[in-house]
Write a structure and sequence with these properties.
alpha+beta; 8 strands; single chain; 7 helices; elongated
Length: 240
Amino acid sequence: MTRKPVKHVGLPKSEQVAQTIEREIREGRVGHGDQLESEGALMRRFSVSRNTVRRGLEKLSRQGLITTRTGIGSFVTYDGATIDSSQGWTVALSEGGGNVSTRLLSLRKDGCARADAVLGEVQDYLCLDRLRYCGTAGQGISLERSRLPWREGFEAVLEQGLQDGSLNETLAGQGLAAASGEETAGVIPALEAVDAAIMERPAGAPMLRLQRVTRCEDGSVLEFVESILDPDRFGLRISF
C-alpha cells in the first residue's frame, strides 16, 4: 500500500517531509537499521525537489533518527528508546529495542583523579561503573563511570547495593536529587584498548563522550559522570 504524506498547512515542504518520516519511524513502521526510500522515491512520494528531500533528511539526521551514507542511502538509527533529558541524554536503554541490558561492573568507595580535576577538590567518591550491552549486536553501547562525592549514608549503598538497580531511586531514598547541572558532549577519536575490551568493541573505534555534573538544591555536587557512547545509538538533540 502506498503511504501518502499528511498535509501540514503552513509548514515548509522540507519540514513536512521530515515530520512525516519521523512519525513513521517513531510508530515503528520503519525500524532500527532499515533503509529509507531513495531520494528519487521520496521526491515522487512528496512531489518535491531533491533539495527539499535532502533538507528534510538533514533534519532527521540532526535529530539522531537516521544516518546517511554517501552513495548508499539513509538508514534508521532510532530504536524506540526514550531519552530522558531530566538526567542527561545518556540513559539506560533497558526499555528500548535491540535487547539492551545494564550490567553493574563496579560499586565501591575510591578516589578519582579525573573527577578531582573537574571538581577542583581531592576527595573520596562513591564510584559506580555500568555497561549498557546490546545482546542483538553483541557489544556494549555505553560505558558509564559515575563518581559521587562521598556523603554520610553511602556506606549503606555499598552494603545493600542499588535500590531496584537504579542509582536515582537509591539517591532518592537518601533524600538526594539533582536540581541543576551541565553536560558537555565530545568525540573520542580512538577507543582505548581497556575500554574496548570492556565494551567488546575493536580498539581504535571512534566513539562519543559525554561529561556531566549535577548539583543538589544547595549547590553541592551530587554526581560527576563520564560516558562513552556508541555514535550509532546516541545523539544530541536541541530544540530552540
